[in-house]
Specification:
single chain, about 300 residues, alpha/beta, Metallo-beta-lactamase, Chain A, 2 domains, six-stranded mixed sheet, 9 helices, 13 strands, globular, binds zinc ion
């Protein structure tokens, strides 16, 4: 069955978005393309099972295979980098650019794939497989301008969601935040992109502040889409990351376990959005407020319960 997804399109000057149809659902996992005069760059490539659809989306935008010079991976989680091995074959001239901490996972993804599939349990078919990328195709990211011909893209290291996480900003202020910003889907409020075992909350807040300093004019998120009025929007994301810490800390102090805290956060999100359980679609109910919320809470608990120096 072909997964549902929004049509690919040009969402800003020389910036294209492809809905990868992650989890068999539209508006869950996006990847982006930036076009310069000489070449193009991709930002993330999505899960492996969705690669054919993603590649077709890129072709539909008129991106020629040999023109892709860089494939930037914001980080190595499978919803961003799972299809990197397929993308490296599809785009033979592209350098795969990733934070140096992620390189070993691209060369040997077995640990990452095992942990991800375990985390998703009976839903792990969505995650699929990830095969090794040839080491000679991989380049460690540097915080410098990557030129595409009258357009450039620059990584900004934004640890928090994971240590080897980066965002990217173009020379004209288009920000691809990756999971440095929260998740937003289906009418629900912001859900911080915490991840197990430890979500570095302080690092995540500092990273959003670094993005604010870059003064972006528009922000694109992988999960999902465009955030206008970027400065205020980034403040909302920072507030959400911090307020979740406070709420989860109080529940940990009350002695609630992971399952109870997830149930309470689920209730909190529904209440905040003035929604009922019956308003949720299957993806929101089972994946977003199920597995993914569980991972976010686990990451916060790991952070709160970790010994402080
Ligand atoms: Zn991630």
């Amino acid at each position: 069955m072909k997964p549902k997804s929004a049509a690919p399109g040009w969402v800003a000057d020389g910036v294209g978005m492809v809905d990868t149809g992650g989890y068999g659902q539209s508006h869950t996992v996006a990847c982006y393309v930036v076009k310069g005069e000489r070449s193009a760059a991709l930002v993330d490539v999505g899960y492996s099972p969705n690669w054919r659809q993603t590649a077709d989306g890129l072709a539909g935008l008129g991106i020629a295979r040999e023109k892709v010079e860089y494939i930037f991976l914001t980080h190595v989680h499978l919803d961003h980098a799972g299809a990197a091995w397929e993308a490296s074959r599809e785009f033979p001239n592209a350098r795969i650019v990733v934070h140096e901490k992620g390189i070993r996972h691209l060369i040997d993804p077995s640990k990452l794939v095992g942990a991800t599939r375990a985390g998703f349990g009976d839903q792990s078919a969505h995650v699929g497989d990830m095969r090794a990328v040839q080491p000679e195709r991989i380049w460690p990211a540097r915080e410098e301008r990557y030129d595409l011909g009258r357009r450039s893209v620059e990584p900004i290291f934004t640890p928090g969601h994971m240590p080897g996480h980066m965002s990217l900003v173009t020379d004209d202020g288009v920000l691809f935040a990756g999971d440095a910003v929260c998740v937003k889907h289906g009418g629900l409020g912001l859900i911080p992109a915490g991840s197990p075992p430890v979500y570095d909350v302080r690092g995540a807040v500092k990273s959003v502040e670094r993005l604010e300093e870059a003064k972006p004019t528009v922000t694109f998120a992988p999960h999902f889409g465009q955030y206008p009025q970027t400065w205020r929007e980034l403040e909302h994301h920072k507030d959400a990351i911090q307020s979740w810490e406070g709420i989860i800390a109080s529940k940990v102090n009350e002695g609630l376990d992971h399952g109870r805290i997830c149930a309470e956060m689920r209730r909190h999100l529904l209440q905040e959005a003035e929604m009922k359980e019956s308003d949720l679609d299957g993806y929101s109910s089972e994946v977003l407020l199920g597995r993914l919320l569980g991972m976010t809470v686990e990451g916060y608990m790991g952070y709160l319960l970790a010994p402080r120096p």
